[in-house]
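Hi team,

Filling in the usual template for the complex we talked about on Friday. All components are listed, including any nucleic acid strands or ligand strings, so the model treats them as one assembly.

SUBMITTER: L.P.
PURPOSE: interface mapping
COMPONENTS: two
RESIDUES: 602
SEQUENCES:
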Amino acid sequence: MRYNEPSPLEVRVISQRFDLPNSASIDTYLANEGYVAIKKALDMTPEAIIEELKRSSLRGRGGAGFPTGMKWSFVPRNTGKPTYVICNSDESEPGTCKDRLLMENDPHQLIEGMMIAAWTIKSNKGYIFIRGEYRYLIEIVDRAIAEAYERGYLGKNLFGSGWDFDLYTHTGAGAYECGEESALLESLEGRRGVPRLKPPFPAVVGAFQSPTILNNCETFASVPVIIRNGGIWFAELGTPRNGGTRLVCVSGHVNKPGVYELPMGFPVMRLINEVCGGMRNGKKLKAVIPGGSSAPVLRAEECENLPYDYDSLAKLKTMAGSGGLVVLDEDTDIVAVALRTIKFYAHESCGWCIPCREGTTWLKKILTRFHEGGGQKSDIDLIGDLADNMLGRTFCALGDAAAMPTTGFITKFRDEFEAYLKKSQTTAPVPELVNI
Amino acid sequence: MTFSPELEARFAKLLKSYPPGRTRSAVVPMLLYAQDEVGCVSQELIEEVARRCGVTTLQVDEVIGYYSMLHRKPLGKYHVQVCTNIACQALGGEELYEHASRTLGLGNKEATPDGLISLEEVECMGACSWAPAIQINYDFHHLVTPERFDRLIEALRDGSYGKKAS
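RESULT (copied from the run log):
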């Protein structure tokens, strides 16, 4: 199911089969260009496949936006170790609900993308790491994997090439941190999902201490069409260095929230006004959180003429991240949003690195006091200072993911924080920071 | 411990999924799948999973506190999870949680005395574009209003839930 009406403005590339009857079945996939790309890839050298990906300017759809072709090229050859292909379907970034649709509606596209990755590095084993809450998807993906085995698309000596590839699902059990690639690998190996120190990166030392291709679900799902139609074709759908389309998840105060496949560089205001039917109840736009909750907030005026792609958002010191846009109207209490955001990161911090563990906890305490009306004048700068001291000081990006949006809220909406202070001067007892 | 044939089949498949000598990888999935059948992660289950995966009980024990879906005590037969994260918050997720807490008479992670329903305020569950969202066990329910929530709870209580899931 798609759960929301499609928009005529969409460019349906990786979601092209979503509305077909039995879209998750191998027959539907085969009848619609399924498993054509892997057959083509089998006649290509690894270098040619990677070159095609580089030409496509496909960038990681999980959050970091790293060029996929380059990531694959980092995997060393002939180390004598086995290699692995891992799909990150731990989708947990607040605001993001797209990988769910890819697995629910077109699991074979994901399987084929992973097969192409596996063939490129001659890997014989792959795992799809699916967040525990998505149990129904594990059943769907397992069924698709079983179908692929039955039809000879997975297993031994594929297409007579002498190459074997086995694919499995692996369930998470509730932990945002496992979306971070090295924490995901720890979790896959049966341990607490705490991050590893990098380098070495997973491409060199990944799953089971071996070279590994690890990508987001949507990234893998984009690979078959690139091999089928060519990298240039894909690249030209988007903007320079930001190739292709992506599934954009819009939530919040719009008339038609939903997941829509749009070309990279699609203007944010057209997305809100035309794809999503404008703001609810005729309200004015106040802010957009543009790439999942880790992305620093944008004020309404910054969204004018803003193309939605990695580089355009990076110029505004925020990010397209995981593709989740939370649209907020004029009535939104930004302090409440900032507090809810930091509560999340405090809850999800794995506790491994002190700046993150302590930083998120103290930010939560200060913001809770602030929100309850007990804010002090010095708190605004204290929040900024704390966040600054977390940035870049942790093993993984969760510390940054908590610090960046916090800094964003207090710099972009300092006026609202100051207005809260004025309110709090009239209320009597100030909650104790230590007791919160 | 004895499990259903389906769960045994799942375990057998899991243990074969990982590279040789890497059965520790099966610990977390095994705990979660078993919890769904037996209700919680008991000491007995910890020992059983440790034995089957060839690891120490401590190695099993240490992951339980880390993963929010693993529980040492049984939840309600129906575990109602209300998301209040930012996308749901924007469309009334916090008010929905308050409504749930008030009407069920439950605080966070508490269960009704008859063990039928438990409540949890959860983080983003991946239904942001169809907020506010809840999960009842593993079933997603999108665009949940307080009225719709009440109807779902009524269905849980009168046994009609799941006959026509949304």
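MY TAKE: Chain B has a mean pLDDT of 96. Residues 98 and 107 of chain B are 9 Å apart (CA to CA).

Thanks, L.
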